[in-house]
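Ticket #4471: structure export looks truncated?
Reporter: QA, pipeline team
Priority: medium

Steps to reproduce: submit the single chain below to the structure queue and open the exported record.
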Amino acid sequence: MIYGYARVSTNGQVKGNSFEEQEELLKSNGATIVLKESFTGTKLDRPIFDDLIHKLKPNDTLIVTKLDRFARNSPDACNLIRSLVDHSITVNILNMGVANNTAMGKLMITILSGFAEFERDMIVERTQAGKAIARTKSGFKEGRPKEYTVEQINHALELLNTHSYSEVERMTKISKSTLTREKRKQKAAR
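Actual output as written to the record:
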């Protein structure tokens, strides 16, 4: 069986990515069944796509117009393509080529793997560069921001002088564990 998969993120998808254009390309390249889905590409768990992946059998072919219709990033695409090819399913990405168990198909997967690794390395480099720039700015603190201000914590700790932990938790929405941790920190600082 030759399946085509068309995906749009929005109904007003830009030229070249509309359902109609994708379906026409998929059919003209041999797809006998075209499944369409309007769903974000940032998630690999897409209902119609998941059903299609489970339908595929050895010697079937899956055609997509572009890699970004298939997966949002190279690592996800590479892992999925490798898994399909390992199950004797051919993946034809029209703007890239065919991935299968032939020498050329394996070369395409190897090249895609290289791009996936490159993409991961670039993300790490950009993240490190961003952190280095952020560290030079005054007031920078590593890690996630504190949920409560110093004033909120101090107010809650003062309330503990006349109220129970449960009462203070209800009044301030600050958990008992946070209050006990902060109380210990203040005692240790004295």
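Status: closed, not a bug. The export was complete when the record was re-opened. Leaving a note from the reviewer for reference: Residues 92 and 156 are 61 Å apart (CA to CA).
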